[in-house]
Amino acid sequence: MDDRKDANQKILDNINSLVGEERELRERSTRQLGLDDAERARLKAVEVQLDQCWDLLRQRRAKSEFGEDPGEARVRPADEVENYKS
């Protein structure tokens, strides 16, 4: 696997791990009729990290597609990623 694919795979592995944690927290919320403050904070943090990971992966893919170095892609600040409009 080349470095580009390896880096993308690491991002995808992180996404999969975060999705699993998010799913677990949401299921716990449903079973227990809510989360405590720490769990709610963790869920929000996981959601932000997921958005940042997806954004980074999109940046890397776009740079590759247009012949740029995907290694130049950087994690953007949470407030920037969270304020994107669909």
What does the model show?
It is a single chain. This protein has one domain (3-72). Helix content is 74%, strand content 0%. The chain has helices at 3-32, 37-65, 78-82. The chain is elongated, with a radius of gyration of 15 Å. The termini are far apart. The mean pLDDT is 92.
Q: From the alpha-carbon coordinates, what is the Rg to the nearest angstrom?
A: 15 Å
**What is the percentage of strand-forming residues?**
under 5%
On the 0 to 100 scale, the average pLDDT is 92
Number of E strands = 0
Structural class: mainly alpha
Order of helices and strands: HHH
In terms of per-residue confidence, which ranges show pLDDT below 50 for 5 or more consecutive residues? none
The biggest sheet, with number of strands, parallel, antiparallel or mixed sense and barrel status, is: none
- Cα distance, first to last residue? 33 Å
The percent range for helix content is over 70%
Query: What count of domains describes the coordinates?
Result: 1
Number of helices: 3
The outline comes out as: elongated
Compose a concise summary of this entry.
The chain has helices at residues 3-32, 37-65, 78-82. It has 86 residues and is mainly alpha-helical.
In terms of topology, how is this protein built?
Elements: H1 3-32, H2 37-65, H3 78-82
Helix pairs in contact: 1-2
Question: Which characteristics define this entry?
Answer:
86 residues; 3 helices; mainly alpha
